Amino acid sequence: MGDMDRSVLTSQGFRPNRRQFLIGAAGVLGAGALMSSCGGSSSLSFGARTVDDGPTRQLKGLISAYEAASGNTVVYNATESNAFQNNLSQYLQGTPDDCFQWMAGYRMQFFAEQGLLTDISDVWDEIGDQFNDSYKIASTGLDGKQYFVPQSWYPWGLHFRKSMLAELGIDPDGIYNWDDFMGMLDGMKSKGLIGFAAGDKGGWEAMGTFDILNARINGYQYHVDLMAGREQWTDARTREVFTYWEQLVPYMNDNVLDLEWDGAMQLLLQRKAGAMLMGSWFGGNFLEQSQEDYDDLWIIPFPEINPEHARDTIDAPIDGFCVAANGENSDGGKDLIKFAGSKEGMQAMLDTGEPMTSANKNQDTSSYDAFQKQQLAVMEEAKYITQFLDRDTRPDFAGPVVGPAIQQWFRDPSSVDGILESLQEQWDALPPL
Fold first, then answer.
1. d(CA 248, CA 250)
2. Are 106 and 164 members of one domain?
3. Is residue 75's pLDDT more than 70?
4. Most-buried pick from 169, 185, 253, 337 (CB within 10 A)?
């Protein structure tokens, strides 16, 4: 679903450990492939990593449309999100479904490197012109081949209320670079407002701020290389991220570590704060409050810091589909995800009425509301898409190590050098995957 899977945002159970498996859940995950193997080439199986009602209706709408279009039969197997993630390695090494829901970026590359995913470059040859290059990059393994078809996404960006900025005389289109941003924050502070609402009690929320600052200062490639261990946490370039971050602290609420994501959101909702960096999925919370509140919500890209990189990168977790290398019917799996990535497949999911922002650039967006269309505009400016820190690095490093380290930095920003040294030492001490 998204960063740290929103259905379990406050749980510690979301963090997958690829060296620990729940054998029972893994057995459930593998059951579908055994069923599909009996049906010949016209039968295939699909593994869903959700049991929630809305996404289930969406996926079943997709499969129904695919069966009607292809004449093939699809066995649908659903597993709760945490169990699916925690057991994916064993699932893929056993008798997996032919194709399954998964995530782009590092989470996909890890399993592709192990030979557990099927190369679907030929699928991209057929439908690749329906996606922006940033989606292809996010779907590409370290060997340059494609292993993933995108379905949906949501951006992380600078969110605010249009009416509040208008009252302050601030033009959101004029907030392009760091100086513009600091001017906006000063204007908000002069009115007694929190300029930059933040919460990090959950240990994951502030990872998005680290991501975007690192990308804006050092660029996409440095950021992904740092996440993969190819760059050092003790590098001066990493240190500079915290130099800029510290400039934002005076404009934040004092109780950052006492608030989770929704507490920070409430500051914006209640007009106590002027802006917040978060994933756009929280728009649903504004809509629950009122249509007027939702219509007042807006997003722009986080401002430029280093002109060399401008605003070319965005955290936008992408969900989609992969084909298992050990599946019984990989050709069938490829056929299904090719349909899923097409305009027709995406439309079948949208027609269920469940919220989704299609990754297909040819999609009819006439039914999107103004906030969704603004999200599209933010995405279209980006050349590179990152997946959020917990998806772009080892899960046994992101949650247990980086999360507490950032919380410690909030408690004592002067300890940054020691924190970065500790982060590098803990990365170096990780066992081989």
1. 6
2. no
3. yes
4. 337
Split into its structural domains, the chain has a count of: 2
Distance CA 84, CA 108 (A): 14
3-state helix, strand, coil in the chain (%, to 5): 55, 15, 35
Same domain, 132 and 170: no
Task: Indicate whether 172 and 122 sit together in one domain.
Answer: no
Give the Å distances, CA to CA, from 66 to 44, 49, 186, 303: 12, 19, 53, 42
Give residue-wise pLDDT tens across range 23-41. 333 344 444 433 333 344 4
* Domain extent for 68: 6-153+317-362
Distance, CA of 331 to CA of 125 (rounded, Å): 15
CATH number for the domain harbouring residue 18: 3.40.190.10
Statement to judge: residues 238 and 355 lie in one domain: no
Q: How far apart are CA 159 and CA 162, in angstroms?
A: 9
pTM: 0.78
Residue 378 in domain: no
Residues 215, 303: contact at Cβ < 8 Å?
no
Both 244 and 322 in one domain: the answer is: no
The two tokens of residue 88 are 């994916």
Q: Cα separation of 357 and 10, whole Å?
A: 25
Q: What is the pLDDT of residue 242?
A: 98
Q: Are 149 and 174 part of one and the same domain?
A: no
Distance (Å, whole) CA 157 – CA 149: 24
Q: Are residues 173 and 189 in the same domain?
A: yes
Q: Is residue 272 part of a domain?
A: yes
Residues 249 and 305 in one domain: yes
Residue holding tokens 């993630």? 85
Bridge partners for 146 per DSSP: 140
pLDDT exceeds 50 at position 18 = no
| Dihedral sign (CA 38, 41, 42, 48) | positive
pLDDT for res 21: 30
Residue 298: φ, ψ to 5°: -145, 165
Can you count the helices (H) and strands (E) in the chain?
22, 10
CA atoms within 13 A on the CB side of 432: 1
Tokens 């995950």 sit on residue:
29
Structure tokens at 321: 């589909």
Q: Are 288 and 351 in contact (CB under 8 A)?
A: no
